[in-house]
Request: fold
Amino acid sequence: MKKVTNILFDLDNTLVRCMVYYEFIRKNMFRKFSELSGLEYEEISKIFTNFERNRIKRPDGFDRNAFLDSINETRIEILNRITDEEKRKNYIESDEPFKMINFGDQVYNAPYTKYDDVDIVLSQLKDMGINLYIVTKGSFYIQSQKVMELPKVFSGLFVIPHKNKSIWKGIAEAIEADFNTTYVVGDSVKDDILPALEAGLKAVHISRGNTSWVGDPTMNVPVGVDSIVELKQLLDVLFKETSFEYHEQLSLIPMLTVKANGEVE
Reply:
């Protein structure tokens, strides 16, 4: 029987929905700034993306204030590009750009929701005696608030500024993990899967739809790494060679089948 002692879970877009809120503010901000300035939607998107690339390089890049800085810097750059004097005057006098910054602050604190399959799977894994941890980037306060909505099954929460080989290795060493029986589960190939493998850990990729953005571009899942579309499938992946006892437990949770073309039935 395959042994699993620890699972290190990513949080955003793995256990809780995240990208839907980010995309919401982006699209509404681009539309409003475009209407106000006369600049094309795509031009504003490129401006914001450039500032986002710089933001994620900062030590505090995933804090609320850093995100609001990106919006404010976008506001200023748009002003610098307006050539029509009347539009420039209207843009300067309008309070809409500042409303967008306040709007971004509110959306950043949106009530994040769990994916439907999270509670039952986490509880099942805990009942199996597996130690569960969360490893996430961002603000400790905001991330811990999200964790409060999850089942009380975790042995630790690690909130870090960046994810790389050294971070994953350091966390595994901190919990005194057996690298051969410790798994990382996350949606990001760049942040979760590749550096975890480089650190000598096991990994399972979860695809929660399109979660790609400038800080986490789309990358192919490495050959040999299992990829799932729902957390319920993690149990089957981890315990392919389990005893009858575990199969009895797994049968209590409905599983999805992924076809060769990627469709789910």
